[in-house]
Amino acid sequence: MAKPNKKAPEKSVDIFCSKCRAPLYKYKKGGKGALIKCFKARIVKNFTLTPCVCPKCEIVFAREMLIRGMPAFKIIGGKVTFK
Question: Residue 27's CB: how many other CB atoms inside 10 A?
């Protein structure tokens, strides 16, 4: 399995909770597809107090996993939106 690129992409997106619209992360996303996973190394700004839990409405929006040998958050479908 190939590891993701060491160099972070130029494009930065803001990730929000889809239930209460609270900001969760500022993330360097590569590509133009759906948001499925967030590599921890690419998170620029973290607004959460506990990992994978929304600070405002306290729903669990992701799970911690190892993806291609790197720590990441696997997003649960429909729990987050991004711009």
Answer: 22
DSSP 5: P
Along the 83 residues of the chain, how does pLDDT read in single tens digits?
777 777 778 889 999 999 999 999 999 998 889 999 999 999 999 999 999 999 999 999 999 999 999 999 999 999 999 99
In the chain, the N- to C-terminal Cα span, in Å, equals 29
Task: Count the residues in the chain.
Answer: 83
The β-bridge partners of 26 are 14, 45
What are residue 12's phi and psi, to 5 degrees?
-120, 135
CB 67 within 8 A of CB 39: yes
